[in-house]
Amino acid sequence: MISLARSDFEKILDHAKKGLPAEACGLIAGTKENGDKIIRKVYLLTNTDHSREHFTIDPKEQLAAIKDMRANSLAPLGNWHSHPESPSRPSEEDKRLAYDPSASYMILSLMDETPVLNSFHIENGESSKEELVIRDE
Amino acid sequence: MFITVTGEKKEVKDGITIGELLAQEKVQTPEYVTVSVNDEFVEGEGRDATVLKDGDSVEFLYFMGGGAAWL
Question: Which ipTM was obtained for this model?
Answer without folding.
Answer: 0.85
